[in-house]
Amino acid sequence: MAKEKTKSTGARPAPLKAPHKMMLLFTVVNRKKAEFYIDLLQSFDVNMQLSVSATGTAGTTVRELLGLTDSDKAVIISVITKEKAAEAMAMLDEKFRTVRGGKGIAYTVPVSSTIGVAIYQFLSNTVG
User: H/E/C letters for each residue in the chain?
Assistant: First the structure.
């Protein structure tokens, strides 16, 4: 397909860039460590995060067997680009193993669409 020159300037329009694929990153951690993980995730160009208080459902006996003492949890929902999601997951895996009291789980879900260019640009941390 040949590129056409614009009528007003005679210049060719800029080629369209493929949009960044977006993911929702769910991170479940002890409530006391939520702020720590929110700050870490911001370093991956995350422009929007939501933290929701939650309570674990395991009984006291099961928690003791698994070495879990705190049932107060936080679910952090972050919007992140697919490119940054792999890096963030690797960082979370390392922190879950090394931070005292910092155990948790994390998983991603693809975002299939957004409504509005401005919202997409904000969430993907891109400008027109």
Answer: CCCCCCCCCCCCCCCCCCCCCEEEEEEEEEHHHHHHHHHHHHCCCCCEEEEEEEECCCCHHHHHHHCCCCCEEEEEEEEEEHHHHHHHHHHHHHHHHHCCCCCEEEEEEEECCCCCHHHHHHHHCCCC
